[in-house]
Amino acid sequence: MGDATAQLPHQRSAHAEDCLDAAALQGAGALILVLDAAGLVVRANRAFLASLGCAESDALGRPAWELLDSEDDRHEAARVIEQTLANGTPGARETAFLAPDGHRRRVAWSDSPLRGPDGELRHLVCVGIDVTDARQAEARLRRLAETDALTGLLNRPSFEAALLDALDASGGMGAGLLFCDLDGFKAVNDTYGHAAGDALLVEVAERVRGLVRSHDVVARLGGDEFVVLCLGAGRPEVKALATRVEAAVRRPFVVAGRQLRVGVSVGTAVGTPGDVPEQVLSAADAQMYAVKAARRSRGAGLVATA
Fold first, then answer.
1. Domain boundary among 112, 136, 160
2. How big is the CA angle at 268 (ends 262 and 270), to the nearest 5 degrees?
3. pLDDT tens figures, 9-18
4. In whole angstroms, what is the distance from residue 77 CA to residue 107 CA?
5. Which member of 148, 224, 275, 285 is catalytic?
């Protein structure tokens, strides 16, 4: 009797520790999953179960990857988990899966193998942090850094990087280039204000973007200057596109209930792998100014607003 009584404090302590462990597991905001050596689920906390929209009874004893809805997700999860179990070493990974709400979520996982006294792997503890919002915020920042805030087109640094790649001597495809500068845009700003001018630039960007192939690049360099990079295109294709751009921009735009008209002067150049990007851009720019000067000499440089 004395021995049993003496063990009670120890038993109470062990029970308290078990309760604390369970509370910590279930109360954690992180996704926590414990697998056995075969990849079967032996423990899963509420956060993990909620992320997949399943009950604990549906998860226990099943391969972890079977809990995912998407077949592609299941295949990838099976590969990663089996590889981690085979390696038996701690690791970090990031995965995406289709959540019950139909949106994809990204989770950063930390995997910790647990071994028995004999050194054999007994369990794998996977702790995941949902990083979806963080990754989306990073993507938004990248887009802001790469795109023109007004039109959504690529900005000048992004365009210059694309031109550099296209003219790379070892792997570039070469490219045709259109340098576009609006005619009569200053009159829009002076007559109707900068808000109307900005709205017009957005409409011009949409029209030009609608004329190019999906893998071509359209960018706004600044002000009313736009460029189009036609990957792998030669002179005939570039000249034909320049004609289409001129015709599209000449059509009236409706901005805030007003019909506005502008024109565009387009200069073209073609660069081949190994050409100097700055020289190709300068050639298209120079031709654009020659086109604009010729139109002005004919009295066609300014397109009136209506």
1. 136
2. 155
3. 545 454 444 5
4. 12
5. 224
pLDDT cut 70: percent of the chain above it = 88
Contacts of 82 (CB under 8 A, 6+ apart): 39
**Would residue 83 count as lying in a domain?**
yes
Active site residue 133: no
From CA 302, how far away is CA 261, in angstroms rounded?
10
One domain for residues 25 and 132: yes
Q: Based on the domain organization, do 118 and 165 belong to the same domain?
A: no
Indicate whether 290 pLDDT > 90.
Answer: yes
What one-character DSSP code corresponds to residue 168? -
Decide: 222 and 216 in contact? Cβ < 8 Å: no
Tens digits of per-residue pLDDT, 236-263?
999 999 999 999 999 999 998 999 999 9
pLDDT at 303 over 70: no
Nearby residues of 225 by Cβ (< 8 Å), 6 or more positions away:
179, 180, 181
Residue 68 contacts by C-beta under 8 Å, 6 or more apart in sequence?
52, 74, 77, 97, 98
Alpha-carbon 190 to chain mean position: 38
The range of the structural domain enclosing residue 167 comes to: 147-297
